[in-house]
Amino acid sequence: MKLSVLIIEDNEQNMYMLSYLLEKHNYKVSTAYNGKDGLKLAHDNKPDIILTDIQLPDMDGYEICNKLSHNGLSKKTVFITVTSYAMGGDKEKSIEAGADGYIEKPIDPDTFVTQMENIYKAKNN
């Protein structure tokens, strides 16, 4: 079965790279460039995995994870924050907000999909 991924990312280059890598690995990808659109797409499409940047123009990734993880999506939905805003405590803050995993940018194109899949498997196995 083809898993679906929602990417919430405001940087076009990052969005392109993430979309390209995931589509190349046979994932169904939907995209949002801000939190408001991301929340709507998450509820409309019910993706298996949600990748969200922490720094977005209208709300941060922590707020998105918090809202989505407590609001009607499947308990199997996997939330992963992806950010270059790598400060001490960001990983812990992501987990507290409802994320299942955290991946730092710049992403490594050779390992990113495996990192994401490992987080997915850890929650759903």
Automatic annotation (TrEMBL):
Domain (Response regulatory): give its ranges. Answer: 4-120
Q: Which residues carry this modification: 4-aspartylphosphate?
A: 53
Record keyword Phosphoprotein present? yes
User: What domain of life is recorded for the organism?
Assistant: Bacteria
Q: Note the Gene3D superfamilies from the entry.
A: 3.40.50.2300
Q: Which InterPro entries match?
A: Bact_response_regulator, CheY-like_superfamily, Sig_transdc_resp-reg_receiver
Does the keyword Phosphoprotein feature in the UniProt annotation? yes
Give the keywords, sorted.
Phosphoprotein
Protein name per the record: Response regulator
- The species is Mariniflexile ostreae
